[in-house]
Amino acid sequence: MRPCVLRGRRVEVILTMAVSEAIENYLETILVLHNQKGTVRSIDIANELQFSKPSVSVAMKNLRENGYILMDDQGHITLSSMGKEMMSKLSVGVESCFHARKPARS
Fold it and tell me: Residues 66, 20: contact at Cβ < 8 Å?
């Protein structure tokens, strides 16, 4: 995504902040779902965020192309080292999400 600079630096900063927030939202959702389910697919993210599947697919493609996530042949999504690093800078701790105990199934 090319930043808009038609109205100057302020618009560019606002757009960059909105994109960063969207990235963080997707990455955090991937972490939470990974912790809950063990595996994450685009449909899981779409259901969790109540977004359309096509919207999530486009977002996952962008995250993959920018190095934040990895996707295997079956469509399972994991955070790349860059995605984990970004999440570790946020209040959601990557280590606590990846190493938290999964609830026992009844």
Answer: no
Long-range contact pairs involving 98-102 (C-beta distance under 8 Å, separation at least 24): 98/31, 98/34, 98/35, 100/35, 102/35, 102/36, 102/38
**pLDDT tens string 95-105:** 455 555 455 45
pTM score: 0.68
Confidence of residue 52 (pLDDT cuts 50, 70, 90): very high
